[in-house]
Amino acid sequence: MPQFILILAVLALMIVNARADDNALIDKVKSSWRAQSGETAEQIFAKVSKVAHFVPRGWEVGQKTDTSEPVFFSWVKHRQDKTDDEYTIGWDVASDGKMTLGPPYAKPMELGWQAFALSLIADEATNDEKGVNLRFLHDLANFNFVATAQGKLGDLLRQGRCAIGDPVGVDYLPKLDEKQTAKGDLWRVQISVECKIPGPAYFTRDGIIVFEKREGQDWEPQSFFAKRIATHAPGSWFDRADPKEQEIFEAGRKALQGAGIPPRGVQSPFQR
Question: Would you say the pTM of this structure is higher than 0.70?
Fold first, then answer.
């Protein structure tokens, strides 16, 4: 009998130690991981839960591997959702302390709480979720995490008297394989805008703005309008034509002409 009691005591001690190790690993993620904005995961979750369908459930530790230990955070869209409806965000904690965040849908977290909230709310809108926070999705200030040489994107759009339309995209695109050199393994912000300022309708009516950012690099403009915003101060976005734009529009016009299609809508936006 005393031997049996000793075995139970040892097992209980092992369980206590395992839980202590798990709690220590969770605390390490809570205290050490930071978004590029400087925010902790818990700070991001607390803010996102106020604007998106995001109800925190809790932390747990997964199965340890030879190279890392996983830590998971679970959440649901609605308080009444069951365990099967849970989503997870994970950190692989390597032996050297490096933490890798995943899956891809959670990667906007690395940009800060607003980027993560926008990505979730945009997904809600796409999937026709009830009670989508469209006000947050269209608030210019929430796009200030995109920095340009002229200033923060949201501030620049406000100065340019622009309003954000639908759809809104804040996404992370993972690299498909190591040989891939083109798109992938980057963050992308894509929005359309209506701007109440003089300028070509191509830009001021459903103008497309696309910025992309790779790990450790600055935001880079990808669309014509984004390049103008990043290069020129508000009020001078359309002061002069861009030869590259002219070249692209001319190529499009010729392609449609060659196919026998009237080239309406593809002439240079600076042609009156």
Answer: yes
The token pair that represents 192 in the structure block: 């359309």
Token pair listed for 211: 């910025």
Span 174-225, pLDDT tens digits: 876 666 666 668 999 999 999 999 999 889 999 999 999 998 899 999 999 9
Residue range 232-260, pLDDT digits in tens: 999 999 988 777 776 766 665 666 666 66
Sign of torsion, CA 45 46 52 54? Answer: positive
Q: Residue 161 and residue 269: Cα distance in Å, rounded?
A: 19
Q: How far is CA 226 from CA 119, 149, 210, 215, 265, in A?
A: 20, 12, 6, 20, 20
As given in the structure block, the two tokens for residue 190 are 């894509």
DSSP line for 102-168: ESGGGGGGGG-HHHHHHHHHHHHHHTT-TT--HHHHT-GGGGTTSEETTEEHHHHHHHTTEEE-S--
Model confidence at 66, in pLDDT bands (50, 70, 90)?
confident
Q: Report in angstroms the alpha-carbon separations of 158 from 78, 144, 162, 193, 224.
A: 34, 11, 6, 11, 19
* Pick from 187, 253, 248: nearest CA to 214: 187
CB 69 within 8 A of CB 60: no
Q: Half-sphere exposure of residue 230, counting CA atoms within 13 Å on the CB side? A: 17
